[in-house]
Amino acid sequence: MQNSLESVDEVDNLFDRLFPIMRSIMGNGYRESLNILKEYIPFNEHFYDSGTDVLNWRVPLEWNISEAYIENSKGQRIIDIKDSTLHVVNYSDPVDGYFSLTELKNHIYTIPTIKNAIPYTISYYKKRWGFCMTQEQLDSLPEDSYHAVIKSSFEPGKLVVGECVLKGQSKKEILLSTYLCHPSMANNELSGPIVLAMLYNRIKNWKNRKYTYRFVITPETIGAISYLSDHGEELKKNLHAGFVLTCLGGNVPLRIKLSRRGNSPFDIISKEISSGSFDSAINNLPTNLRINSFDASSGSDERQYCSPGFNLPVSQVARLVYAEYKEYHNSLDTKELMGIENLFSSCNQIEAILKFEEEQKYYINRHPFGEVKLGDYDLYPSLNTNGYKDCDKSNSLKQQINSINNFVGKVMNYLNLADGTVSLHSMSKKLGCDSAEIEKITAILVEKDLISENL
Fold first, then answer.
1. Is the pLDDT of residue 128 over 50?
2. Spatial distance between the Cα atoms of 422 and 265, rounded to a whole number of angstroms
3. Residue 290: beta bridge partners?
């Protein structure tokens, strides 16, 4: 039986278990973290061996670390990864040597503009060793001989991707994807996996799920690329829409980064919410939703899902957005900044969008090549004229003909839009119909066997 995440205390406990773990893209810390999350989501695991070519990348060696510290000449610890996993450059080479302050500074990373923050620094694909500390701490170091120790190893290993599929009535899928590879950061690391687990625990209890839901967790970038290398074609075939979950803490409105296509189901819903074209409160949908266009130069794994060869309908959902807050990628990204309650708010709003999409219907024209000969289905007037024979009744005849022409026009546009990708909600907006009228037209076209629901 999977653990639940229904209360603040349960979510808080999961956070506290995950936060201190030394994570990276591969290694013991990643596996330990994934095993904890498997208590909440029954992930199946996909493995990619070091040295395996995955698309344009190659899976690196696995990195593990047992110790990393700097001592002064008196044997006093200046920094230690036991105090913060951010104190070492992630994927750092091992080192054990004595260095002057000048020599040591060549291997120290700080944020000069945020003097009290330890930076998150990585070097996955180039060999180097290094430590991270606050600028205040670096400025306070006296001239001395410093003992720098990093006990790390590089060995052939396996990159691990977690995947869980909840079957629905349709083979069409909703993808919910996030990453797990950053050490000891809250909003930028743990908000995504925790909200993913919260959503799984809710969606599995939905009755009569229409869509199949695919939950994926990877080390960022290299993990998504590895997963796409052998699941990309499957996703291209079945994916209806998707969200990459990242940075979901903070007390600011939700933000949707559109897919590369710009017209995925979640893109359309988000743009309509943002424009105020319908009452979000009716469906408990988020308000004050922010919209950003797709940008391949920043973000998370939507960049991989939306790369041109795959071009999947995957948007990104975030809140306190990466690179837009000073605590990003440093030790100030804490649980207090993220806020456990804010994760519930993000989860509620994302679930509302998912439920709204569950209720949408999509139809497909059964005769999509050329226009349908509507006259054979009693949907087109048998007489096409601009003249009127009965002058006394010309006004009523005009109204009748205008009404017929208006209906015919909507039917023709409906059939043209009915390619299986336009929901009835969007169809009504495009045709200028209310919900009752679009349902009436749909019922007529279904009865005439001109359209079928695209499940």
1. yes
2. 8
3. 255
**Domains in the chain: ranges and CATH:** 8-60+158-359 (3.40.630.10), 62-155 (3.50.30.90), 362-453 (no CATH)
Tokens of 309: 């060869």
Q: Which residue's entry shows tokens 């509302």?
A: 352
**CA dihedral sign of residues 213, 335, 297, 125:** negative
Length of the chain as a residue count: 455
Instruction: Please give the order of strands across the beta sheet that includes 62-71.
Output: 77-80, 62-71, 145-155, 95-100
Is the sign of the CA dihedral 39, 40, 42, 44 positive or negative?
negative
Q: Reply yes or no on whether the pLDDT at 391 is more than 50.
A: no
pLDDT digits (tens, 9 = 90+) for 220-262: 999 999 999 999 999 999 999 999 999 999 999 999 999 999 9
- Pairing verdict, β 314-318 and 239-245: parallel
In terms of phi and psi (left: phi > 0; alpha: psi -120 to 50; beta: otherwise), the region of 288 is: left
CB 330 within 8 A of CB 118: yes
Tokens of 167: 């079957």
Regarding beta strands 131-132 and 108-109, do their DSSP bridges make them parallel or antiparallel, or are they unpaired?
parallel
Up-side HSE of residue 137: CA atoms within 13 Å toward CB? Answer: 19
Instruction: Give the whole-angstrom CA distance, residue 100 versus residue 78.
Output: 14
Rounded distance, CA 84 to CA 430, Å?
Answer: 54
396: confidence class by pLDDT, cuts 50, 70, 90:
low
Instruction: Tell me how far apart the alpha carbons of residues 211 and 166 are, in angstroms, rounded to a whole number.
Output: 9
Question: With 50 as the cut, is the pLDDT of residue 269 above it?
Answer: yes
CB 172 within 8 A of CB 209: no
Within 10 angstroms of residue 224's Cβ, the number of other Cβ atoms is: 24
pLDDT attached to residue 1:
64
Q: CA 6: distance to chain centroid? A: 22
Tokens of 345: 């708010």
Nearest-5° angle of CA 143, CA 149, CA 155? 150
Q: How far apart are alpha carbons 316 and 322 in whole angstroms? A: 12
Whole-number Å distance between alpha carbons of 406 and 77: 81
DSSP letter at 94? P
Phi-psi region of 169 (alpha: psi -120 to 50; beta: other; left: phi over 0): alpha
* 3-state DSSP assignment of residue 49: strand
pLDDT tens for 10-56 read: 999 999 999 999 999 999 999 999 999 999 999 999 999 999 999 99
Query: How much is the mean pLDDT over the chain?
Result: 93
